[in-house]
């Protein structure tokens, strides 16, 4: 049984996909997908030996060695272009996800669906997708155990979720085009919490250059909250 966050990630994997789960840790996603007959086969990629061994152990436990190939290596570099039809990268910061995509983009054919779940800094993932010709197909937000997670789904193609207006687009890159429109309770709560954190930091900080940057970011979030009322 998967937690809600990973259930949501899995819900965007096309039926019959060949999946690469990068940063797979215990390989829960590929194991679950195969047990549910959602996918044909999978590659579980891990950069660290401990989690890779955990993946191997789990795959052996559920006797899926013939369907899941556990590979040690950084990010997408464990893949040969065209080998998979869907890629999941979940449970890491958005900055790391964006760097995994950038460093490994030559290992993608461009036909894959990308399902990305940044814990923080989703803006970095959206920027990478936009700069690399990926269209955002869908965004979701999930609250579980007092944590809020964003999920971004993308495929190569013409971008359609973003506004044409460049100022609005910058705003949407930061907060998410679909999420901004939907205003789900978890989304509102996420940015209110983020704002409180910044408020706290600001109060702790001595006056200096840094506070100007933070104040500008806070002004943006304040405007978002106002708009949502
Ligand atoms: N994907 C699982 C999830 O969402 O529950 C596990 C998330 S776990 C917090 C992050 C995993 O990513 C760790 O096991 C870590 O070793 C792995 N990781 C970090 N950087 C990586 C990279 N460049 N390539 C492959 N795996 C990486």
Automatic annotation (TrEMBL):
Pfam families, alphabetized: TrmK
Family matches, as Gene3D superfamilies: 1.10.287.1890, Vaccinia Virus protein VP39
Endpoints of the signal sequence: none
One Gene Ontology MF term: tRNA (adenine(22)-N1)-methyltransferase activity
Protein name from the UniProt record: tRNA (Adenine-N(1)-)-methyltransferase
Native source organism of the sequence: Exiguobacterium sibiricum (strain DSM 17290 / CCUG 55495 / CIP 109462 / JCM 13490 / 255-15)
């Amino acid at each position: 049984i998967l937690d809600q966050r990973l259930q949501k990630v899995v819900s965007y994997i096309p039926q019959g996909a060949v999946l690469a789960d990068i940063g797979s840790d215990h390989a829960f996603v590929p194991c679950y997908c195969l047990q549910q007959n959602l996918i044909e086969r999978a590659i579980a990629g891990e950069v660290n030996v401990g989690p890779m061994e955990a993946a191997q152990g789990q795959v052996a436990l559920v006797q899926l060695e013939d369907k899941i190939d556990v590979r040690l290596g950084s990010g997408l570099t464990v893949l040969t272009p065209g080998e998979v039809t869907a890629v999941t990268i979940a449970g890491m910061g958005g900055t790391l996800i964006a760097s995994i995509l950038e460093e490994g983009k030559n290992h993608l054919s461009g036909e894959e669906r990308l399902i990305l779940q940044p814990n923080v800094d989703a803006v970095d993932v959206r920027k990478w997708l936009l700069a690399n010709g990926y269209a955002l197909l869908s965004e979701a937000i999930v609250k579980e155990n007092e944590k809020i997670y964003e999920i971004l789904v993308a495929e190569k193609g013409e971008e359609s979720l973003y506004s044409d207006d460049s100022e609005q687009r910058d705003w949407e890159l930061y907060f998410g085009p679909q999420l901004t429109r939907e205003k789900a309770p978890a989304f509102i709560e996420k940015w209110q919490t983020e704002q409180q954190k910044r408020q706290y930091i600001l109060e702790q900080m001595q006056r200096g250059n840094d506070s100007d940057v933070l104040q500008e970011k806070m002004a943006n979030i304040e405007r978002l909250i106002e708009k949502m009322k």
